[in-house]
Design brief:
Glutamate--cysteine ligase (chains A, B); GshA_N (chains A, B); 6-stranded antiparallel sheet; homodimer; GshA (chains A, B); ligase (chains A, B); 2 domains; 432 residues; Rossmann fold; ligase activity (chains A, B); 8 helices
């Protein structure tokens, strides 16, 4: 059972959840139509924020890293959805090479990879794991804390194909977000499926492009069911020429912060929200919650001290930050025990397969819950996101989870549009 | 938990289950390829027989009637698979009219309809139930024994569309097998999806055509993974000109029975099986286990007494039997407690969504378990059919259920081929 969640501010959200419930036939038909026009990503996860008056995705991860946190009871759902993803993207594949991130010391991440391997094997694929780490020179068995094992093997490039010793896979599935760019070993593979396509990696992906696609998707969806898109969408701005270490571009950033805060204040007034508006400044490329800052006034981004500048200047893999997105902040109203709870929804193909709460006891309602070194306690959803019950209250767990699933799918759809629109001309050897 | 099943004769079947496990990547790839060439039915169920040396489907029902017997824990799997079916067959539908059988006194069947309505509603469809019964002249709420309700409404035909009062559905889903022929109200609907297509009804469907399609599918599958197709296939013969009441055609029947028994004896010898071979004579059209006879010697079908002739002459809806199929009998080796247990597997789209054992305490291992008036105890599978575990024994429940799922999907694929090959020229207003 998911513990009782604090629902002090449920008034307006109940209304949103009620609208989702009442419009479920329209919503599902709309999604079906969208998925006929857009190819869903192989998999994805999204962090949602729920303020009680607003339910919106904060980001969409195309290389999800928490399959280990899902409820075991819903593994069959994952397997069935993964079958669907394989069928859509690489139906003729019988073997698959999974390439994970290089965090060999992160037990949680390794358990995620092991879970993913299990799911994919259950679709009937012959799955092995190839590591980009130069020190993996022979098959290396890692014993994981949860009693499972994971074998990492050295990659073998042969002409335009990538494989392992005695393993020539039909498809390559990335669980590595390519923050450091495309490794040479992945370049020019034009005889194998590469999933997701290389241009979905963080070396080219931009949060602002995703936000722009989400904005369009959310507006169309909101029109379809007759709601204010602001209820499911985060306002944002972009600053494209900043250098935190050289202290250039601060004025642009401050102006954007101020403009966004002004727009949020107007909306808060319209909805009678008395919380203090805030925005989140993030590196436009990159993930893992690095390069993130919470701001309640434009003046806070002027004259940052050395520590603040260092924190913002560099993200994962040592990448310099020159472009930032300024995103509307959402106060998290959900709590479990003493901790702030942020729902994370997992999808494969276009199906919602489960999720969990990221619970943090040492952070406030307006802080980023996905930060470096952050320790969160995962709490698997106890109910699937596809079993709403009209006989229950709009905020009863099955209905709240359905609402999560609707918003999560909007973010996934936005990612599909984003991948389509950012596809390089003549990209070879890749699939969406 | 599924109770421990008697496994006295597991030797050879363990071998078959082991082959399925070892060849899972090939098997799943083969199915993916097949489903690219063949449209899966919207839904289907199959009764399997497991003799310990043979695991084969006895029939394939295109109008499954036991969704109420599935494990509640796997409802999300049904919903996800149903979403897939809707997407494939009627993606632009937002409302659906379900037409059930006319058994308004059969609580089990009505609970099946109620379960099906729930599943379909959870895909986001607006679902209502229209009855072919002339005495349903206004919306009629039936209170079911399991605490749910079901509302039957009178059908309203309007030009080339079928609906209910204030309900003009995009699609019509049949859970009525059309044994009595196509009701006039269903004829000439060329503006709505009719699912399954009308020619999948028992007014035209023949068990022998399905058996012939299954035979081809099973042979190709068996070649792919290198097994004797006999291990998953029932031998059969057909008698097309019989009249039980006028006692004509008995010689043809006896000759077919004898030939089939001879072939089975040869196979039993090859496999060292010491059981007594038997065959099952069934009406070639029709369902519900009517018109079924178990025979161990050709002489038994000569000079049938009046009671036997009456039993065979007429099936559901009073249809006369003139064509029979003579099917290889399979001794059921699975038992639960004192009862013989026959697995029934449920599918939506091409996904296995669950199943149950039909347990009968008063019938022998070589008797038909689906007979008129038969009382069976359903026992839901406790494990999904899509989570085989290579670390467990081949006959451990997840692996046995996987084997069930493989054979059940072969039967479903055979039904797809059958529906394709029996499609009338210029059939209008229908979908597979």
């Amino acid at each position: 059972m998911v513990p009782h969640l604090t629902t002090a501010l449920t008034g307006p959200l109940l209304e949103l959840e009620r609208q989702f419930l009442d419009n479920a036939p329209e919503i599902e038909k709309w999604f079906r139509t969208q998925w006929q026009d857009h190819m869903p990503p192989f998999y994805g996860s999204t962090d949602l924020r729920n303020s009680g008056f607003k339910l919106a995705p904060v980001d969409l991860n195309l290389f999800p890293g928490g399959f280990n946190n899902l409820n075991d009871a819903f593994m069959p759902l994952c397997v069935q959805a993964a079958q669907s993803a394989v069928e859509r993207i690489c139906p003729d594949a019988s073997s698959l090479l999974l390439i994970p991130e290089n965090h060999t010391r992160n037990q949680f991440y390794l358990q995620n990879v092991a879970s993913l391997v299990s799911i994919l094997r259950l679709t009937g694929l012959d799955v092995r794991v190839g590591s980009l780490l130069p020190d993996i020179v022979e098959p290396t068995v890692l014993e994981l804390n949860n009693g499972t094992t994971l074998t990492l093997e050295p990659l073998r490039r042969s002409g335009k194909r990538l494989g392992l010793d005695n393993f020539d896979p039909c498809a390559v599935l990335l669980n590595n977000d390519l923050s450091a760019g495309i490794p040479p070993v992945l370049k020019g593979l034009d005889e194998q499926w590469v999933i997701p396509p290389l241009h979905a990696g963080w070396h080219v992906r931009r949060k602002s492009k995703h936000a722009e696609c989400y904005d369009r998707v959310a507006r169309e969806f909101a029109t379809t069911i007759g709601i204010d898109p602001w209820r499911i969408n985060l306002d944002f701005g972009v600053c494209g020429q900043i250098n935190f270490q050289e202290r250039t571009g601060e004025e642009c950033l401050a102006a954007q912060v101020d403009a966004l805060l002004t727009r949020i204040r107007a909306k808060y007034k319209e909805y009678g929200v008395t919380d203090e508006p805030f925005v989140v400044v993030k590196a436009d490329a990159g993930t893992y919650g690095m390069g993130v800052m919470t701001v309640t006034d434009a003046s806070e981004v002027i004259g940052l001290n050395r520590r603040q500048r260092n924190k913002m200047a560099v993200v994962k893999e040592g990448l310099q930050v020159h472009e930032v997105i300024i995103q509307e902040g959402v106060h998290t109203f959900e709590t479990v025990g003493e901790g702030v709870a942020e729902p994370v929804v997992y999808m494969m193909d276009h199906y919602v397969v489960g999720g969990f709460y990221r619970i943090h006891t040492e952070r406030g309602r307006n802080e980023n819950l996905n930060a470096p070194g952050m320790q969160f306690k995962p709490l698997a959803f106890d109910t699937s996101c596809i079993m709403p019950d009209v006989d229950l209250a709009p905020d009863a767990p099955p209905n709240r989870f359905y609402a999560y699933g609707v918003v999560a799918r909007l973010a996934l759809l936005a990612a599909s549009v984003e991948i389509e629109e950012t596809e390089p001309v003549h990209e070879i050897g890749e699939a969406a």
